[in-house]
Amino acid sequence: MELDFRSWGGSKGGSGLSVDGFKLLADAHEYLMAAVRGVPEEAWGAATPCSEWTVRQVYHHARLDQQALTMQITGQAPESDPFEPVDALAGDGAEAVMRLEATLGAALKAWESGREAESVATPMGPMPAQAGAMVAALDAAVHAWDIARATGQDLPLTEDMAERLELPAGQVVEFVRQSFGKFAPVVEIPADASRADKFLAFTGRDPYWSATTG
């Protein structure tokens, strides 16, 4: 299975919606920041929809993923392996928020630097920065939902964001699932489920997950 990003330049999602990748990334980053700001100090060790990881680990994974996706633009590798996130924080929740703000700001700046280029280098091969920003948005948004859900915050993935994320999800999720096994299998949910719930299920998440039922 191969990725084809040639059509991602003024991209349209499955519904024909025009998607601005840079705006989508900014919105996904805002969602992730809101989720991390809302984590109670006692909840950093809580279980998450990512069954093997705590909230602390999902936080680190999400932050490191943003670094990894831009490392060939910035020339800087992530601080550590995103798929081996530590179950610890350097400082308290306020420190975690500041570190995330710095990471997301640098990532957005990196994608913006390639806005006028035909393509930029990424771990998945050359692609328009518009497409890379959408991939980064996909990653940030799903982990924002993971953290919010795990900590009982009223921060659902909106229908609007889910619709805009359908394009990068349709291009990337199955490729990553088949090639690297990094997304769980699609979760079966009712046909009349919301757009956001269907999107989450496609990424291998149970949209009805709760800390009490797992």
UniProtKB/TrEMBL annotation:
Record protein name field: TIGR03086 family metal-binding protein
Mycothiol-dependent maleylpyruvate isomerase metal-binding domain boundaries: 25-148
SUPFAM superfamilies registered for this protein in UniProt: DinB/YfiT-like putative metalloenzymes
Domain of life the protein comes from: Bacteria
Organism (species): Streptomyces griseosporeus
Coiled-coil region(s): none
Matching Pfam families: MDMPI_N (PF11716)
